[in-house]
Amino acid sequence: MDTRSQAARYYDLNPKFPDDLPFYRQLLPGKDSRVLELGCGTGRVLLPLWTHCAYVHGIDLSEAMTSMCRGKLREQGIPDSRARVDVGDISSFDLNKRFDLIIAPFRVLQNLERDDQVSGLLACIRKHLAPHGTCVLNVFNPYADAETLRRTWVVEGEQIEWEVPFEGGRLVCSSVRARMDRERMILYPEMVYRVYASNVVKDEARMRFVMRCYYPDQLVSLLQSHGFTVTQTWGGYENEPYGKGPELVVQFKA
Predict the structure, then answer these.
(1) Pseudo-torsion of CA 145, 151, 153, 157, nearest 10°?
(2) Least C-beta-crowded within 10 Å: which of 94, 175, 212, 220?
(3) How many whole angstroms separate alpha carbon 124 and alpha carbon 112?
(4) Which residue stretches of 28-62 are H helix?
(5) What angle do CA 124, 128, 134 make, to 5 degrees?
(6) How far is CA 249 from each of CA 80, 103, 108, 230, rounded to the nearest angstrom?
(7) How far apart are CA 98 and CA 2, in angstroms?
């Protein structure tokens, strides 16, 4: 079941996406580099990258989102020899290719709920890295310590996240934070998208997903425990110190 099928048509309208495109562009080893994007979604990062590298390959579990991404590639006349998108599980895939840079922007790692999924992802990354290739994973930096987060994350009702003009009306996105696995520090949010025309709801779409929390030391330890070498860390996309900014961004190699 594609849990993002309803919301795919509204996903690109989120004004809260991080300004991370310059960051990923500067990580490219060169114009001849080959890039793999895990959890590519509708192509927010993939499409701008293809002009800066030789080849970019995207994988995402959502058929609806990959279909939108393919449509954008066709509209821009981008050939398969330069960019390709597949439906697939990022914790279990084999492309029989190696890449100079592997990325998973906007907290894709956190969507993996189980330990075996995380281990599967890291095994796939190792298998697909070129000899001198690197990978960059990103998660959010939790806003509070674990005990505080356990007490405060679950709230009643909906919380408005953002609102944008849409087809003569407006699109409002709200979050529902009704469930959390406090022992394993896993959040289960739901995003609700509503299209309004004159304050009348014309459409509603919901998207449930998983957000597994990682603290700064946990993320580094996870990668090291799987035999990777961490080469650089950031706290966000504006050179914030690791552990001090809104994001946890880690670059590593096999």
Answers:
(1) -170
(2) 94
(3) 14
(4) 46-49
(5) 105
(6) 30, 11, 12, 11
(7) 28
Which of 40, 16, 37, 39 lies closest to 28 in space, CA to CA? 37
Sign of the dihedral through C-alpha 60, 63, 66, 68: negative
Contacts of 217 (CB under 8 A, 6+ apart): none
Tell me phi and psi for residue 221, to 5 degrees: -65, -40
Place of tokens 């709920």: 113
- DSSP letter for each residue of 197-234: ETTEEEEEEEEE--EE---HHHHHHHHHHTT-EEEEEE
Cβ neighbors of 201 (< 8 A, separation 6 or more) are 194, 195
Report the pLDDT value the prediction gives residue 17, as an integer from 0 to 100.
Answer: 96
List, as one string, the DSSP characters of 156-202. SSEEEEEEEEETTEEEEEEEE---EETTTTEE--EEEEEEEETTEEE
Between vectors from CA 45 to CA 41 and to CA 50, what angle results, nearest 5°? 115
Tokens representing 211 are: 């957000």
Only one residue has tokens 């003009």, namely 165
* Rounded Cα–Cα distance for residues 209 and 2 (Å): 11
Look at residues 50, 237, 42 and name the one whose alpha carbon lies nearest to residue 140.
237
- Structure confidence at residue 2 (pLDDT): 79
d(C-alpha 88, C-alpha 97), whole Å = 15
Q: Give the number of C-alpha atoms closer than 13 A to the C-alpha of residue 239, restricted to the C-beta side.
A: 1
Task: Going from the first residue of the chain to its last (254 residues), give the mean pLDDT of each consecutive group of 10, the final group possibly shorter.
Answer: 88 96 96 98 96 97 96 96 97 98 98 98 98 98 97 97 96 98 98 95 96 98 98 96 97 98
| DSSP state for residue 19 in the 8-state scheme | S
